Amino acid sequence: MPKQSTDHLITLIKRLTPAEKRHFKIFVNRNNPKEDPIFLKLFDFIDKKKEYDEAAVLNEIKSIKKSQLANVKANLFKQVLSSLKLQMRNNLTDINIREQIDFARILYAKGLYKGALGQLEKSKKAAEDKEKFSLLQNILEFEKHIESLYITGSMYPKAKALTKESNKNLKRIATENELSDFSLSLYGLYLQYGYVKNKRDFNFVTDYFRSRLPDVDEKELGFMGKLSLYQSYVWYYNMVQNFAYYFKYAQKWMNLFVENPYWIDEETSLFIKGYHNVLNGLFMCARPEKFEKRLKELKSLERDYNLNFLDNQRSSYKLFEITHDINQVYLKGNYENSIDKAYEISKIVIDNPFEWDNFRIMMFDYKVACIYFGAADLDNCILHLNRVTNVIRPDLRGDIQCFARILNIIAHFDLGNEDLVSHQIRSTYRFISKMDNIQKVHKEIFSFLRRTPNMTEDMMPKEFFKLKSKLLILKKDPFERRPFFYLDIISWLDSKIDGITMAEAVRRNAFFG
After folding, report:
1. Cα dist. 345→323, 325, 350 in Å?
2. I need a labelling partner for 428 at 20 to 30 A (CA). Which of 12, 106, 191, 410 fits?
3. Is 378 among the domain residues?
């Protein structure tokens, strides 16, 4: 087994719950409970050891020869997956329906054609009820195959009905595929280009959206069709920064699940993401009271809906929960009382038990740095900002890296580290000069910071006020307002102008309100 496959095997075993491990051992010993198979010995070794060492395996398990090891690992991987499949079949509809189709194929192979058709009829009803249209098409094709080769007693009327069912289902599949492809293409567009930064970007994204939006009747769509349609609108309005409509379609996305509770278990990841987008919309639209209510709902989803999160769902859930915990701090300006929360989040980010990618880690480091900055804990702020700027990945959100550098300069400025300010200014200038489509907000803030080494103390209040005046104008520009969500520079300027803390300035300004 290649190294990558070995890594997958080890990670899979380490992620098994105690219940899943017990089930696996019962599963593999079901035919011969008196003697452990050789792959089970390898399972126990991987389960107990912190790190996998091939030499240690061969030394400790004498019954495994080096030439056999690859096959033993492959067999173990297959057995673990088979055990999990058996254990999860009642919770995952797709697996359950496929198993019924497999039973029908076994009956068919044994010449029990009517028994096979009866089994297919059961699986067809389940597939239709659960809107598993691709699986339904497999069932219909198998039915047609049996009817075309063998005399089952149904003859012409059945054949006609099957043809009608198949054509109807193919149209549904085509519509759902068109909508899901469109939604995915918009999400890909967002990942490639991010948010619109000017009128040209806006026109491009809007033309792309309108020219490719499938012509469908929303009322005739099934659950997944409606979900793909709402997702498409969410991605579009997020990109063009129309936050009111972004929230509107995120709410429709979430309501779709609430109105169809079966799908909450079936598509838990998308249900959680719907809540995440609703909270994002409320954050962007500055609705702190509604935001707080929805956040409480998010935190109780697992209990309220009796959800059993899979590992990937647990990772997403924790990601969204932490994201909105931080956003709530921003909304309330409650920085001083959030130091413990920032420390807890920082520890999770460093340990990374949920295996988030570099982009997520970078975002959390920046957000935690902003909490420390608002609480005037500048040393910890700089520590986290350095974790962002030390990521040598220009493809990872250049705008966030740019703001991290700007905030770093501001933090050193507040600490009176003149030499470090000069160094950071030169470094940030080199970084910004390589950025495409740098926004006016970036330019104005950085232009101010570049002048600070030459400013005398009595010049500062006037310079602070001049920068604030320019930024307040830019804040009204729909293509320039997003940077203010990443750095509340207005409140920082007010804290300097009026001699108050950053947190006091945020609360006084009700920046997002």
Report:
1. 10, 10, 9
2. 191
3. yes
